[in-house]
Structure formats: C-alpha cells, structure tokens
Design goal:
Layout: H1 2-23, E1 27-33, H2 37-51, E2 54-60, H3 62-70, E3 77-79, H4 84-91, E4 95-104, E5 106-110, H5 121-125, E6 131-134, H6 140-152, H7 155-158, E7 162-165, H8 168-176, E8 182-186, H9 187-190, E9 197-200, E10 209-216, H10 223-232, H11 235-243
Parallel strand pairs: 1-2, 1-3, 6-7, 6-8
Antiparallel strand pairs: 3-10, 4-10, 5-8, 5-9
C-alpha cells in the first residue's frame, strides 16, 4: 500500500513537472554578434515574456562564433554582424532562412568629452596615442573601421597606433576604460549614453554592415528557434533594434 502511494505521488510530481516544463516553453541557444549584446538582451527578455520560450545567449565576434558553429557548437540560431558567414552556412547546408535583422552603424567614440568634434579632424591631426578597432579578420566592424581609415588616406600613418580587440565588445572596453583615447565602435554601444564625444561615420565611407540571422541545423526541430526568428521580424523587436541606433530594412 505504501509503495503504491509513493508511486502515485511520484507520478503526480512527474506530471506536474512536465506540465510546468510545457507551460514555461522551450529554449534555444543563440550565437550573437558582440555589437548586438545590449539590444539582444532586451529582445530576449521581450521574447520570453511574449512566448514563454527562453533564449540562452552567447556573445562574441562573428568570425569566432562562425568557427564554433562549424565545429559543432550547439547553437540553434546565429545572429551575425555580416551577411557572408550566414550565407556560407546556408550554402553548406548548415543553416536556412537567412534575413537581415539590422543594419549596423560605425562611430568614432571617446570617453573624453571634448576630444572628438563633428568631423574626422582628430584622426587626421594625429592628436592621439592609441586607436581601438575590432580585429578585421573576425569582426565586420573592424573591416569597416579600416575602410574609413583608407578613405581618409591615413591607414598607413595610424597603423602603429592601432589596438585591436577580439570583438567590438572588447574594442569598446578599451575606449571606455581609457586604455585608448579613441575607438571605432558600434553606434549601438554608445547611442543610449550621453557621456564622451563621438563622430558618426558617414555611410559612404564604409560598406554597409548588414547583419543577418539564420536558423541553424541544430535549431530546425526547436520551436523556440523558429519563434525567436519570427519575433525578431515583429514590431516589438524592431522597435528595440531601432532604439539602439540600427537601421532597418
């Protein structure tokens, strides 16, 4: 009798656990380009509230996240900072459903209030010791920064002053802590802050930073993965993305 009661209680507990798990939704592991960190944290919170699903976020440079995906990392969704890596994954049969979720913008930023004016004069005059950029080999924002320096005709002159971050997050950290006077960072990283000084780089000085999302093969059978991509296309997510200074298609 006691054994039967224990079995009944266990069955009831297990049923309650399963009901709770269903009610709380599924989860998806998401690889997120570092520039999109702050925005994605807000998007993920809204996504969980709206759907009951949970997005587990991992941030890094697009190049490094791409390499992790190729080596079998358990991500269901990839939010890149470019179009090239998602396209390669689609062509390799490792992803599908590619679309642009944001258009990134580059800004020259300093924590010093009066260092940067409305132009690139501070770069041309060379009145600084160190300039932080993201590594062009792994970060699209680093590629854009080098294009700006080339456009200004000063790439060779400032090369000895460059400090390269592994990602745009580390690049921003270099400038924010004062380890470098200047940094080419994502507008999204500083747009909601009144501190420091900035020059928003004109779009014609660098190739458009179209940031694409894809559903990865490991997320094909995950309801939360498909739901997250749908949510990113919706008005709530787009309002957050735009508030962080990104352009929308």
């Amino acid at each position: 009798m006691r054994n039967a009661q224990r079995l009944l209680r266990s069955a009831v507990a297990w049923a309650a656990l399963m009901i709770g798990a269903t009610a709380s939704g599924d989860q998806v592991n998401v690889a997120v380009a570092a520039n999109f960190t702050a925005a994605m944290k807000e998007v993920a919170a809204g996504f969980e509230k709206a759907t009951g699903h949970k997005a587990v976020l991992s941030f890094g440079s697009t190049g490094k996240l791409y390499a992790q995906i190729l080596h079998g990392a358990p991500f269901g969704v990839f939010l890149a900072a470019d179009q090239e890596r998602p396209r390669k994954l689609v062509e390799a049969g490792k992803a599908s459903g590619q679309f642009t979720y944001a258009n990134g913008k580059l800004v020259l930023w300093s924590k010093q209030e009066d260092l940067i004016g409305d132009t690139a004069d501070v770069l041309k005059n060379g009145g600084f010791k160190r300039l932080a950029i993201a590594n062009p080999k792994t970060a699209p924002y680093g590629v854009a920064a080098m294009q700006v320096l080339d456009s200004l005709g000063i790439a060779k002159a400032v090369r000895p002053k460059l400090v390269r971050g592994d990602s745009i997050a580390q690049t921003h950290q270099f400038a924010a802590t004062g380890n470098t006077e200047l940094g080419f960072v994502a507008l999204a990283q500083v747009v909601l802050s009144d501190g420091g000084s900035r020059w928003i780089v004109p779009q014609e000085m660098y190739d458009p930073i179209r940031q694409d999302a894809v559903l990865l093969a490991k997320g094909t059978d995950q309801p939360a993965a498909a739901a997250l991509l749908d949510y990113l296309k919706g008005d709530e997510a787009r309002a957050i993305i735009e508030r962080y200074g990104y352009g929308l298609e």
